[in-house]
Design goal:
This protein is mainly α. The chain contains 10 helices and 6 strands. The longest helix has 23 residues, at about 195-220. It comes from Thiothrix subterranea.
């Protein structure tokens, strides 16, 4: 996965609408009243003002998979479920209703990923769920198992090529039990490996990067020194394009380069 970097804030008129509705939620008498408010205003997180702003943050890619709409249509997901939460044992509890209109809880997600995620949001063993209506600071201390795409936790998931495509796996060196649990839960909850089309598209990116790596390595057999370095630099340029923030499946490209590339290739692509 790749960390999504947020710049700026949504349009002010959308923020004003969101603040007004959040105030109504805070003043609501009970859960039923809050449900009515949320249901009546669910178009707010589908509004193009916020949707387009969110899409711009990650080059129109799904924040969980880095896939463009070529894999599935794009939805605005509530990272922490707004309505109810389903626990691993099947029990349910109230969701994070106070975040219903908070853009910081929104994630751009492919429809098929969003459908798989549903309202699952487990907490790591020994940790506690944040109390109702808590502050953002307290939310950051919550032991959420699902990896937040806005954090460096995304580094816990890498990719590997297999016979059917390219699949999400634990990153190398992840041996801390909590981090392992988070990576495994995220892959499972989001269904990162269940879509053949997604696996195949990632596989094509992996294969294209591998061809460039081989092109670089094979350039030494092409004769003249100037030609050799021209071919090497062209291969490096194409690899650099693959790992750009806006490139589709850039984290797959990075995984391939780091796992299959030589030290000079890795150093050149990531400019160490």
């Amino acid at each position: 996965m790749r960390k999504v970097v947020i710049t700026g804030t949504p349009p002010q008129d959308w923020l004003d609408d969101a603040d007004r509705l959040t105030a109504q939620l805070q003043a609501a008498s009970d859960e039923a009243a809050r449900h009515v408010i949320i249901k009546a205003n669910e178009n707010l997180w589908r509004d193009n003002r916020i949707r387009n702003w969110l899409l711009q943050q990650f080059a129109n890619k799904c924040w969980y998979t880095e896939a463009a709409e070529s894999v599935s249509s794009i939805h605005v997901d509530h990272f922490r479920p707004k309505g109810r939460i389903t626990n691993p044992d099947g029990s349910t509890e109230s969701g994070y209703w106070w975040l219903s209109f908070n853009y910081k809880n929104y994630v751009i997600a492919g429809q098929l990923i969003n459908v798989k995620k549903r309202d699952y949001f487990p907490i790591c063993e020994g940790e506690y769920r944040a109390r109702e209506n808590c502050s953002e600071a307290q939310l950051r201390l919550e032991g959420a198992a699902l990896i937040d795409p806005l954090t460096d936790q995304t580094r816990l998931i890498s990719y590997e090529r297999d016979d059917d495509g390219c699949i999400a796996v634990l990153a190398g060196g992840v041996d801390y039990s909590v981090e392992r649990f988070m990576a495994e839960q995220t892959i499972d909850i989001l269904g990162l490996n269940r879509l053949d089309r997604l696996n195949q598209k990632r596989g094509r990116i992996w294969d294209e990067c591998l061809r460039e790596i081989n092109e670089y390595q094979g350039a030494r057999d092409q004769g003249a020194k100037a030609l050799v370095w021209l071919m090497k630099n062209m291969a490096l340029s194409r690899l650099k394009d693959r790992v750009k923030y806006e490139a589709e499946f850039s984290s797959v490209a990075e995984a391939c380069i780091r796992k299959k590339g030589s030290e000079p290739i890795i150093a050149a692509v990531f400019e160490r």
